[in-house]
């Protein structure tokens, strides 16, 4: 993952999938600060994988990456 805050990584990943910031309220879906603390408490080679959905998109957060996939 980059040196950017996890929140920015998640927002950028959602925008890359075409979801505008005004189409969702991330704080109603997940506590990003708690997620960031959890991810930061693990090492880069940990099998930690956290998934959550925003509309038709699934966000997958690992210690090394944020990915977004479309769920049908």
Notes on the protein architecture:
The chain is an alpha+beta fold and 72 residues long. It has one domain. It is 33% helix and 24% strand. It contains three helices and three strands. It has helices spanning 6-16, 26-29, 32-40; strands spanning 50-54, 57-62, 65-70. It has a three-stranded antiparallel beta sheet, with helices on one face. Strand 2 (57-62) and strand 3 (65-70) form a beta hairpin. The radius of gyration is 12 Å and the shape is globular. It starts with 5 loop residues before the first helix and ends with a strand. It holds the Pfam family HalOD1. InterPro entries: HalOD1. It comes from Natrinema salaciae. Residues 17-68 form the Halobacterial output domain. This is Halobacterial output domain-containing protein.
Structural descriptors:
72 residues, globular, 3-stranded antiparallel β-sheet, alpha+beta, 3 helices
Quick synopsis:
Residues 17-68 form the Halobacterial output domain. The chain has helices at 6-16, 26-29, 32-40; strands spanning 50-54, 57-62, 65-70.
List the SSEs and their pairings.
Elements: H1 6-16, H2 26-29, H3 32-40, E1 50-54, E2 57-62, E3 65-70
Antiparallel strand pairs: 1-2, 2-3
Low-confidence stretches: none
Please state the average pLDDT score. 91
Order of helices and strands: HHHEEE
**CA distance, first residue to last residue:** 27 Å
Please give the radius of gyration in angstroms: 12 Å
Taking strands numbered 1, 2, ... along the chain, how are they ordered across the largest sheet? 1-2-3
Helix segment tally? 3
Number of strands: 3
SSE class: alpha+beta
Shape: globular
DSSP strand (E) fraction?
15-25%
Organism: Natrinema salaciae
Pfam families: HalOD1 (PF18545)
Protein name: Halobacterial output domain-containing protein
Domain Halobacterial output: 17-68
């Amino acid at each position: 993952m980059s040196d950017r805050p996890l929140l920015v990584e998640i927002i950028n990943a959602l925008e890359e999938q075409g979801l505008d910031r005004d189409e969702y309220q991330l704080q109603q879906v997940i506590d990003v600060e708690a997620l960031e603390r959890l991810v930061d408490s693990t090492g880069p080679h940990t099998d930690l994988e956290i998934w959550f959905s925003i509309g038709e998109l699934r966000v997958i957060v690992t210690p090394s990456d944020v990915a977004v996939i479309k769920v049908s």
